[in-house]
Possible 2-octaprenyl-6-methoxyphenol 4-monoxygenase UbiH
Amino acid sequence: MNNYLNFKIVGSGPSGLLLAISLAKLNFNIYITDLLTREKLINKDKTYAITHSTRKILSKFNLWSKLKSYLYKFDSLSISDSVTSDFTILTTSDLDKDICSLDTIGWVVKHSDLMNVFFDEVDNVDNIFFKSSLDLSFNDIKFDFEFVSTGANPNHKKNRNFIDIRKSYNQSCLTFEVLVRGNVPRRAYEIFRKEGPLALLPLDKNKYQIIWTATTSKSMDRLNSSKSFLLDNLSTILPDNFKLDQINSDINIFPVSLSFRLPIFNFKKVVFVGDSFHTFHPVGGQGLNTCWRDVNVIYDIFNRNFPVSNRALNIFKYKYYFIRCLDIISTIVVTDSLIQFFANNKFFLLPFRKFSFLLLNKFIFMRRIILNHMTKSLIYSSIK
């Protein structure tokens, strides 16, 4: 592999850093830029659900063992419908045989822990260079290719000849950490409600990360209310066994959107990665996992003796988008369908919602289908 090629990555979040780490293993020179400082990039109060497909990807890049001590396992998942009062519990016995021995449905990791591990890896690699976007020293470097990983609303998209497909849910997520009593250890929760889903991701001991989706106006009202009012409000919609003690962190708000960016035919050597390429509703926790599958495909294309030339780099761009489309579209369809089906109070849908839980509780193969899509993805078997 040629080591004289210079690749620029714009955006130093989890996707941009993993892309830098992976491509550096192929001996490219990697230059990462971001508007934020390293401290601000690390210190964000967010939490991610990690799936088995992501475990394989992180293991592939020798990061899983370094991250393992920061992960929180969950071995059961409660899915409930607050309108019909139906629920089901998915457990490790519903997993496929090839992963059930790991005794976990998935893992939870804090953003700060993840970023610290990634930045430590970046610091130990000689051919990765991190600079603030305000640092002009990169201006003298001729880049052979550029990767944009600047989040859901990248400024680059306005002048990069991309078709931007977008759907607004008019929803936002509140996220914060709570201390609870009466919880079932190592159990995650997804509660479907009329205003949007509520997810609870287990952290250390009796701590949970709340991901609370509602209309943007209602989310803003809750954000601006007192913590005691927010606790009282949240207590009314949590499972009966939960007893809330306190909010342990700052309360953050994030917009919810569905987007998919496809390139118009052009010869610019630029591709979008992660949230700059696609976003989904957070239901099911697929966001970051899907972003990292982008990185895996990029690495695999370059790793298979890809002929690095101007013409080949243009071909790479369209090969990457073509490979990723099926996985991304299927995730869009599933997440959007779940919201349309469960996040409403439409009377004619209620019998179908009750019937879906009846099927899940009666047939293990139905639960296995759900867990397979959530934890393994369409490309699981192709991740080496």
